[in-house]
Amino acid sequence: MSLRLIEAEADLTEGAAHLARICPVWARVLPGLGPLDLRRRPDGFAAIVNAITSQQLSTSAARTIFARLTQAGLDRPEAVLATDDETLRLCGLSGPKRRYLRAVAEAGIDFDALREQPDEQVIATLTALPGIGRWTAEMYLIFALGRADVFAPADLALQEAARLMYDLPERPRPKALAAQAEAWAPWRSVAARGLWAYYRDAKGREGVT
């Protein structure tokens, strides 16, 4: 199976050119955003730790907590299982997130196998774990696996950016935003990066870690 991936700046450039061709709003907005951020990170357990840490937190808080976990060596499943709750708490993890992290560590996910699986199969595998919802699985697909055509319509920053960029009367609900994003295939992950960049410029803060 051949999967379209975003691995380099050239892939973002190709995707952005596609968006500009198919949509006058993208054609107008993209030049002002500058080069889009690749934001690729290594896949595997550490990427899931990052995604769980980011749930319902500001980007700055999430980065701080993930940095503490990494510095403590707690980005490996065996380390998490060997660590007491108090250490995880002192790193900044709430009770639910500590449980989620342990559950993922115990699950023994074959992260190498996920690289070859279709998007929806990866989502099904990850969302079967406690604390891993569809948004977290979509973040893993976009940033860790580099899938080119994944979108996260429940992401509030994407909703707000779409409202502003398309001059909508209110934030689109996930179903409506997912429908709107269908037009951006096969580069929906580039569209997500563009919307996050638009949100950053409009709000003065990052919408994603």
From TrEMBL:
SUPFAM superfamilies on file: DNA-glycosylase
EC class name: hydrolase
Domain HhH-GPD: 53-201
GO cellular component, one term: cytoplasm
Alphabetic keyword roster: DNA damage, DNA repair
The enzyme's E.C. designation: 3.2.2.21
UniProt superkingdom: Bacteria
UniProt catalytic activity: Hydrolysis of alkylated DNA, releasing 3-methyladenine, 3-methylguanine, 7-methylguanine and 7-methyladenine
Gene Ontology terms describing biological process: base-excision repair, AP site formation; DNA alkylation repair
Pfam families named among the record's database cross-references: HhH-GPD
Cross-referenced CDD domains: ENDO3c
A GO molecular function held by the record: alkylated DNA binding
Signal peptide (residue range): none
Record protein name field: DNA-3-methyladenine glycosylase II
Organism: Paracoccus solventivorans
Lineage: Bacteria, Pseudomonadati, Pseudomonadota, Alphaproteobacteria, Rhodobacterales
